[in-house]
Specification:
147 residues; alpha+beta; 434 Repressor (Amino-terminal Domain); 2 domains; two-stranded antiparallel ribbon; elongated
């Protein structure tokens, strides 16, 4: 969805600054959204973008739009985004080193921080805002959770 908005904006010949002013957000937030970080815009701004460029929101779960899924507050355990945290399990795939986050290394006092290094836990994909799973790569955008 983020890339569709970027492509539609470019095709229409509209600058990021002009579009950001039109939908009521800041240009850097729109830029990050267009690069795939769906967490940078709220549902209202995303809705305006989709309407302006006549883009249909993809279905993520039954009855839920991608825009709504981005802002879902997951009750699941988070993971540590620190690539140097020893809580991650490293493995190789086709010569590429990936880190599988250990979602059990959660702070016992509230579950907001990593019990190993103290970093604030992520609750959704840092690239697209998609729901987490126990793997190392987001099933929505295909990017690794921890780089």
């Amino acid at each position: 969805m983020c890339f569709k908005v970027r492509d539609a904006r470019k095709k229409a010949g509209i600058s990021q600054s002009a579009l950001a002013a039109e939908i009521g957000c800041k240009q850097p937030a729109l830029s990050m959204f267009e690069q795939g970080d769906g967490t940078k815009l709220n549902d209202e701004a995303i809705g305006k973008l989709l309407k302006k460029f006549d883009i249909k929101a993809e279905m993520v779960n039954e009855g839920e739009t991608a825009a709504a899924a981005i802002n879902v507050d997951l009750k699941d355990k988070g993971y540590c985004p620190n690539p140097h945290c020893p809580s991650h399990h490293a493995y190789m795939v086709e010569g590429r080193r990936l880190l599988r986050p250990d979602r059990e290394a959660e702070d016992p006092a509230g579950g907001r921080f990593c019990a190993i290094c103290g970093e604030v836990l992520e609750r959704k994909c840092p690239n697209c805002g998609g729901a987490l799973h126990d793997g190392a790569i987001c099933t929505f955008c295909g990017n690794p959770y921890v780089v």
